[in-house]
Design a protein that fits this description.
- This protein is of the alpha/beta class and 285 residues long.
- It folds into two domains: 63 residues; 176 residues, Rossmann fold.
- Helix content is 60%, strand content 10%.
- The chain is built from ten helices and eight strands.
- The strands form two sheets. The protein has a five-stranded parallel β-sheet with strand order 3-2-1-4-5, with helices on both faces.
């Protein structure tokens, strides 16, 4: 009887007493896998949210940077435009002031230095405020016509490279006419020579004024007055260019670049030839 009872108890409670059943093990494994999947999904979600947040801030930063650059460019453009406008207004006002200014010949008498004529740095004036750019013969013609109108003797020196660098056929023709028919007033220096040497020598010998924006610093050892600001200011007058207007403030000269280069050259040459015939040369040697 006791054996039967023990056998019954063993059959009823044996698996529980010995450990979890296979079914329970499978349930635990499935639960573990489920928990692991949840953790992986949570981690992936966090990474996605982090990436989305990074992208959002990057986009905001890019938009802000782009906006800042646009504003900066606009401010800069507006500032430059304003400066150009101011500069144009200054030139316009100066041009109007020159209408009532004293004549160029009279202005020269107020320089504090005895002078009867001007020596024009042809290449420097032709290139203007843009050294190395294509020379424009019209600027020289404009100034010369004003100088002739004021009855101021003059001479223009050209570098040998002037002719080959002229672009238009009219400029080339006018240039050749000036050298051929106006050799007293228009001079081309020999190839390999610098016009500066001839300009400064003429200024030194005649006391004429130089029209140039060149400071001639590399000639200071030969001409002491170049380093003397007072004397230099009396012997060299600079110029300014605004579009087709050449302005020499200290001579009260404003010269408009002629529309027809050949006609302007012919007018100048007629005056040069007339003075030469009358025995009054435009430029004493």
């Amino acid at each position: 009887m006791a054996a039967v009872i023990l056998t019954t108890l063993a059959l009823s409670f044996g698996p529980t007493a010995c450990g979890p059943s296979a079914e329970e093990l499978r349930m635990r494994e499935m639960q573990a896998e489920l928990d692991q999947a949840k953790r992986a999904a949570a981690a992936q979600r966090e990474r996605a949210e982090s990436a989305e947040q990074w992208f959002r801030w990057t986009l905001i930063f890019a938009m802000f940077s782009t906006g800042a650059l646009v504003i900066y460019a606009w401010i800069r453009s507006d500032g430059e435009s304003g400066q150009q406008t101011d500069r144009s207004c200054q030139f316009a006002q100066r041009a109007l002031d020159f209408e009532d200014a004293i004549p160029a010949q009279a202005a020269m008498s107020h320089t504090g230095f005895e002078s009867e004529g001007v020596v024009i740095d042809g290449m420097n004036l032709a290139c203007g405020q843009e050294p190395g750019r294509n020379p424009k013969l019209g600027r020289i013609l404009a100034v010369v016509e004003e100088v002739q109108r004021a009855e101021i003797p003059f001479v223009v020196y050209f570098d040998a490279s002037m002719g080959p660098n002229l672009k238009s056929s009219d400029e080339k023709k006018a240039y050749e006419r000036l050298l051929e028919r106006g050799s007293d007033c228009f001079k081309k220096v020999p190839s390999g020579e610098r016009a500066d040497n001839f300009i400064l020598d003429r200024v030194e010998r005649t006391g004429w004024l130089a029209i140039s924006n060149d400071r001639f610093r590399d000639h200071a050892s030969q001409y002491s007055w170049i380093e003397d600001n007072a004397q230099f200011g009396q012997r060299r007058f600079g110029f300014e260019i605004e579009r087709d207007l050449v302005i020499i403030p200290r001579l009260n000269v404003r010269a408009k670049v002629p529309g027809d280069i050949l006609q302007s050259a012919d007018r100048i040459l007629q005056q040069c030839e007339a003075k030469s015939s009358a025995g009054t040369r435009g430029s004493p040697e």
